Amino acid sequence: MQIIILGSGSPIPDPNRAGPATVLRTSAGDLLFDCGRGVLMRGAAAGVSAPGLRGLFLTHLHSDHITDLNDVITMRWAMTFAPTPLPIVGPVGTASVVASTETMLDLDIGYRLAHHEDLNWRPEEPVTEVTEGLVFEDGAVRITAAPTDHAPVHPTVGYRVEDGDKTVVIAGDTVPCAGLDALCQGADVLVHTVVRRDIIEALGVPRLIDVLDYHSTAQQAGETAARNGVGTLVLTHLVPAPQPNDEDEQPWLDQAAEQFSGPVIAARDLMTIEA
Ligand SMILES: [Zn+2]
Fold first, then answer.
1. Three-class secondary structure of residue 70 per DSSP
2. What's the number of domains the chain is made of?
3. Which end of the chain is less packed: N or C, by CB atoms within 10 Å?
4. Which residues have CB under 8 Å from 199's CB, separation 6+?
5. Block means of pLDDT (10 residues each) for the chain, length 275 residues?
6. What is the pLDDT of residue 230?
7. Which domain holds residue 10?
8. 250 CA → ligand 1 middle, Å
9. Beta carbons within 10 angstroms of residue 186's beta carbon
10. What is the Å distance from ligand 1's center to 212 Cα?
């Protein structure tokens, strides 16, 4: 299984980091986890396309994780030559967000239907709202979900993806919690969103300080990885974002390493990691 980081950023626009999005290239096809700003542009650079997706999995409905949902829906529809529904899995609320997005796209859908004679179907996205347990199965690929803790954002879920004997966990945004621990047991790779408490407290901006109470620090991600016997820890959605170079990312790695003795990687856009 390959992990392709399409976006390692956060809500704050960054020239080097697109919004949160990760692809797992599995034996069942490309599975996209979250679809933040620039997801299909980064996908184009990585050989990942909307028509090629086997499914879209949302960890939660914060705007930065779904910024480009409309682009995924439109390109899935307009770039295929027969009806090709895109399965979307997410927490309760996902069906409402998808329906609202389609409403927003309604005029555009009408323009394209009127213009292209060979396009005579609307976009289709069968939505499955999930809380926990088995949420996807296709051949050797099994995905289970569990509730995470990103309060007051609720509900939120993380995903454990098994493909044969390899396991990758997509944590999404969360503080350490029992649901995440259950997903992480013995996983080969944990992809975890993180923030830097030391920098954010030093900056002293109230709206930024607010994010500390519902995100994990790099140390906490390290604790989760260590407690659950994870192989490799990948830090992503880095706030505030470091420059994508070894020197700026090193403190993040050092903080995680205070708690976790395995390999730690600071994600950069278009990085590919083998599970
Ligand atoms: Zn969030």
1. helix
2. 1
3. C
4. 240
5. 97 97 98 98 98 98 98 98 98 98 98 97 98 98 98 97 98 98 98 96 94 96 98 97 96 98 98 97
6. 98
7. 2-274
8. 24
9. 9
10. 11
Ligand 1 center–CA 190 separation, angstroms: 17
Q: What does the pLDDT read at residue 158? A: 98
**How far is the centre of ligand 1, averaged over its atoms, from the C-alpha of 114 (Å)?**
38
Residue in the block written with tokens 């994010």? 211
Q: Among 167, 149, 135, which Cα is nearest to 232's? A: 167
| pTM score, whole prediction | 0.97
Element (H, E) at 3: strand 2-7
Q: Report the CATH number at residue 44.
A: 3.60.15.10
Dihedral over Cα of 129, 180, 174, 161: its sign: negative
Q: Quickly tell me which residue has 């016997």 as its tokens.
A: 229
248 in active site: no
Compute the distance from residue 236 Cα to the ligand 1 centre, in Å. Answer: 13
Beta bridge partner(s), residue 137: 142
Rounded to whole angstroms, the Cα distance separating 31 from 42 reads 15
**Dist. CA 20 → ligand 1 center (Å):** 10
d(CA 270, CA 22): 9
Q: How many residues does the chain have?
A: 275
Q: 30, 64, 68, 149: which one is catalytic?
A: 64
